[in-house]
Amino acid sequence: MRLPGRLSAAIEVLADIEARRRPVSEALKGWGINNRFAGAGDRAAIGNLVYDALRKRASHAHVMGSDDPRALVLAVAVRDWGEDPQALNAGFEGDTHAPAPLTDEEIARFGRGDDTLAATGNATRADVPEWLEASLERGIGSDWVTQLRAMTGRPPLDLRVNLLKSGRERVAKSLKRFEPLETAIAPNGLRMPAGGRDARTPNVTTDEAYLKGWFEVQDEGSQIVSALAGAAPGEQVLDLCAGAGGKTLATAAAMGNTGQIFAYDSDRARLAPIYERLKRNGVRNAQVRAPEEGALDDLAGRMDRVLIDAPCTGTGTWRRRPDTKWKLTPDLLAQRTGEQAALLDEAVRFVKLGGTLVYVTCSILPEENVDQIAAFRPRHPEFSVIDAAGLWATQLEGPVAALSDAQGGLLLTPLSTGTDGFYFCALRRNA
Ligand SMILES: C[S@@+](CC[C@H](N)C(=O)[O-])C[C@H]1O[C@@H](n2cnc3c(N)ncnc32)[C@H](O)[C@@H]1O
């Protein structure tokens, strides 16, 4: 397929997402099934157009004066992919798969370029829903628009090398056709930066090194918070929201397969992939606890470290799942903050005297981060915050790149740490 056909396909997929309220991945898959002639390169390019359109939905719509799928996809072609509007029209001529030619009005809008954006509201320039503006400014500070604009780019593909089975050099060698770079902050990470336009994401999970358990796909931010959590060999650790086990696996490696990690999740389906992953990674110090009445009772008061990788709005992962940015509602945020407060209270009973409670989210909203810690402290005065910047100095190399907050926590963002958005705060039990 040539570019005009790919643009038409992306318009079709976006329309399908809107009409049927479908998740992006499902709509793209559906399009692929109905259009079997399209190759892997076509599908990747169409996916990129769709995701790019959603990453900058508000600013694209502002420039175009419309948020219909055609306007958004043409905006990606011109604003993000650097196509010239007149040249696009020339390419559309005689191509039966092309969208309708750009109108004079559309061309004029591109002519005015992004100048009109300067005069518009912050939420549009930051490409976020307006109702989140006050929260983002409060949580991130005065440069929140710049920070959020950095979240409209494509994410890299990051890997964590599994030290239980391999090393960074060996994995890099196995994947050298993808030209991986060492991650800047996480000590055992490799990164394949995002490509532009129709670049395809490297398919690393078919590599022999992956099948042998030498590495996992894990954003560098997730690797950093796992390192900050500071689990040491021989400890007793509870991963209270283990899900598919991304943090469990990183923690097991940090503990050198010694001590014991208890991996629990209230959702059996989310926990299911952990069994295969633990096996492939060669983890021998993790016990999975399925969600049953009293499943964790024997751990009360015994844990050196309890990790809450809390259910959250996922606002830190907007680069990867930009559709969730526009679907988030105040009700969903309130539901998540309620769950987070309950989990913090629930976790307390497992932490032994002198033990550590680690709270993590992949959100950039203060309601889910610093506010949770501020509310927890008077409820549990027996805990005190361990300064996260100090932990950074002991667990990671280089100066603290993340943003600090008034409670002693850290916020990772694409602009500050080059990662997804993550929040980290650790508290010690003193009584
Ligand atoms: C951010 S995800 C965990 C991701 C996982 N730790 C990883 O690194 O791959 C949050 C998880 O919390 C779980 N969860 C939600 N409420 C919970 C509760 N009350 N107790 C335990 N787990 C819960 C969800 O099922 C979900 O799997």
Automatic annotation (TrEMBL):
GO BP field: RNA methylation
Gene3D superfamilies membership: Vaccinia Virus protein VP39
Residues involved in S-adenosyl-L-methionine binding: 265, 309
MF terms in GO: RNA binding; RNA methyltransferase activity
InterPro entries assigned: MeTrfase_RsmB-F_NOP2_cat (IPR049560), MeTrfase_RsmB-F_NOP2_dom (IPR001678), RCMT (IPR023267), RsmB-like_ferredoxin (IPR054728), SAM-dependent_MTases_sf (IPR029063)
Keyword Methyltransferase found: yes
Keyword Membrane among UniProt keywords: no
Catalytic residues as annotated in Swiss-Prot or TrEMBL: 362 (nucleophile)
Span of domain SAM-dependent MTase RsmB/NOP-type: 147-430
Keywords from the named record: Methyltransferase, RNA-binding, S-adenosyl-L-methionine, Transferase
Protein family according to the UniProt entry: Belongs to the class I-like SAM-binding methyltransferase superfamily. RsmB/NOP family.
PANTHER family: NOP2 YEAST -RELATED NOL1/NOP2/FMU SUN DOMAIN-CONTAINING, RIBOSOMAL RNA SMALL SUBUNIT METHYLTRANSFERASE B-RELATED
Protein name, per record: MFS transporter
Organism: Devosia geojensis
